[in-house]
Input
Amino acid sequence: MSPTPVSTLSPRARKTVFAAAASLAVVAGGLVWGAFGSRGAPPPAPPPPVPVTTMRVERRDVPHWQETIGTVTSLQSTVLRPQVDGVLTQVLFREGQQVKRGQLLARIDDRSIAANLDGAQAALARDAAQLRAAKSDLDRFRQLSGSQLIARQMLEQQAASVQQLQATAQANQAAIDATRVQLSHTRILSPIDGRVGLRRVDPGNVVRAGDDDGLVTVQQVDPISVMFTLPQDQLPRLRQAQAAGAVEVQALDRDAGLVLAQGELSVIDNQIDDATGTVRIRAVFKNSQDRLWPGQLVSVRVRTGTSAAATVVASEAVQRGADDSFVYRVEAGNKVALVPVRIEYQDDKLAVVSGLQAGDVVVRDGQSRLKPGMTVAPTAPSVRAAPGNAVAARVAGAP
Output
């Protein structure tokens, strides 16, 4: 059977045949182009290096600091309250003035007490004269009794009179001493070196013994202390540091972070607060320039130890993985490798780690886009592992 010529097909059939032939031609052309034309296409460009900030690993001694918040407190604070009733006649201090121990600060009207003292002294003089006369009579009675010129009863009565007058004289002397004490209370003296606060009573007012408000408060400000708390798990390390010598403590401004004063740990409380699991601690600071003020809130840093010849990186260089910590180390060809590390000490500025060598270059910033083996475009390594480390924070007011 011979094939049917195309010319004999119907017009509709001829359109179908021509459309199928065109489709086959297009497919065949695509296959030929894919087989031969792709041989000359350039390879895809490698991804550009990832820009990162790097630093060089250091080896140096690193002090360990424990940070907390503390309150400045006076080592001695005294409310001066009147001990006698009377009119406040003089106030001899300026508010906020520095005063010395024993300095006269105020006077209370003493005229009534001085008059009582004069009366007690007069009574003592009267009784002393009577006592002298009674003793003279007793001496004569003893002579007459020896000659049996008077009854023994008279001698005994005279001896009793002398003893009675002696007791009266002692009572008068006690009254004088008590009155003198009251008189001394009309002169209000500072019991400590310190600074006076705001005056609570003005001259001319009547003051009473034991007034709750008192006249004024005197607070010792140099030296001064800071009270703070630390978690109880820090206590063994702190006790170990204390056994090795003076424990350094820094008081810092809470806003600027400047070191206001440097002192040392004074005392650790004898018990742990079971409600909070913390222990109270007092540190003492010299305060001749008044950088610390009673009641002030400050940041406190306590030196609890030192890592000698430690391997140091910036704290932000250490990344946390699912199982352990790691850093990205920059190796030959600026390719990065993931290096596991063990953290021995860390604060907000630096970390002491093991697993690296001094001089290694590690990525400090830009790790979020990295994977092992990627190429990076590092900046110049930092000079210090933790610039701005608070260990070297400058003292407030220093040039």
The chain is about 25% helix and 35% strand. Residues 382-399 have pLDDT under 50 and may be disordered.
